[in-house]
Amino acid sequence: MLHDHGVVRSQSLHGDCYDNAQAESLWSRLKTEELEARDWPVFADLADAQASVAEYFDYYNHERLRSSIDYQTPYYTHQQLLQLNALNCPA
């Protein structure tokens, strides 16, 4: 049925349960911190759902500190890695 509708399944690599850990962590946080805090019904409509998820992703990437990256934001850490890679890249 998926093939008939042009859908490609997304699965982790065989035998690698940590392949998708970061994405699963993000979805877990979204559900816990954003969705469970809302009253029922969760969203008024699709536009409300899209705006809520977009706002959470912005918060998650630019404001929410992560202990796994020395209490920095993912955006800040990514920018630091880009700068480091640029310095180590031969011209």
From TrEMBL:
Domain Integrase catalytic: 14-74
GO biological process, one term: DNA integration
Phylogenetic lineage: Bacteria, Pseudomonadati, Bacteroidota, Cytophagia, Cytophagales
The protein's name: Integrase catalytic domain-containing protein
